[in-house]
């Protein structure tokens, strides 16, 4: 099953799952070794520390013998460091160069930075911009008010699609056929029982975006947190991201988020849309 995406590429179910190393035997141009190398790098999570070959094998589903060859290669290339005292590996600073090349060449960040900063500092909230990465939304820019120690997002942070305002805003921004594709994949990932619980809230969020330009989510991804999310769609339709504005419940009321910050966030996204490519 394939479907055209807002980025102009084709999506497959394997694009969605974070913990799979897909075997795309039918695509003669697809290099499985390269794909698996990236799966190894993706297995390292913020704050999780070094990982051994066995742990990486479990995390990626790649056979341990293959993992051993991949970690050796990535170490030789300078992307992994062998922590000899633990017999494990950790990413090196060299990976930052890859990420920096992306964010520094992302025009949307230059367009949204000033409006995001004003909104965050003016209301003591966190404002962030996110893009889809498999089954997550990855933060590509963020501004955190200093008092929000319990909600601190950084570039590279990941949040789930299904249970966050920014993820649901992303789903709302998709064309219907592509959205149904993602909803089916979420159903597979979450399981029938969990999906039956979450789907009505996702559908309600999509309807909120349709009616007022943003959606509201509270106490789902993180207890005690409130947020609104709005899609940011280029006029060409080829680029879709989403923005969020949120804070702990003791900092901002639902009334303020829905009555003031949500409309401001939606207005910001509408105003910036013609400037995107």
Architecture overview:
- This protein has 2 domains: 67 residues, Winged helix-like DNA-binding domain superfamily/Winged helix DNA-binding domain (Arc Repressor Mutant, subunit A), CATH 1.10.10; 170 residues, Beta-Lactamase (2-Layer Sandwich), CATH 3.30.450.
- It contains 9 helices and 10 strands.
- Helices cover 45% and strands 19% of the residues.
- The N terminus is likely disordered.
- With 277 residues, it is α+β, with helices and mostly antiparallel strands.
- It starts with a strand and ends in a 5-residue tail after the last helix.
- A hairpin with a 2-residue loop joins strand 5 and strand 6.
- Helix 2 crosses helix 3, helix 5 packs antiparallel against helix 9 and helix 6 packs across helix 8.
- The strands form 3 sheets. It has a 6-stranded antiparallel β-sheet.
Helicity range = 40-55%
What structural class do you assign from the helix and strand content? alpha+beta
- Radius of gyration, taken over Cα atoms and rounded to an integer in Å: 20 Å
Low-confidence runs:
1-23
Q: Superfamily at the CATH H level of the largest domain?
A: GAF domain
- Please report the number of helical segments: 9
> Which fold name corresponds to the CATH topology of the largest domain?
Beta-Lactamase
Rough outline = globular
Number of strands: 10
Helix/strand order: EEHHHEEHHEEEHHHEEEH
State the domain count.
2
Distance separating the two termini: 28 Å
Kindly report the spatial arrangement of strands forming the biggest sheet: 7-6-5-10-9-8
Question: Oligomeric form of this entry?
Answer: single chain
| Mean pLDDT over the residues | 85
CATH structural class of the largest domain: Alpha Beta
Estimate what percentage of residues fall within beta strands: 15-25%
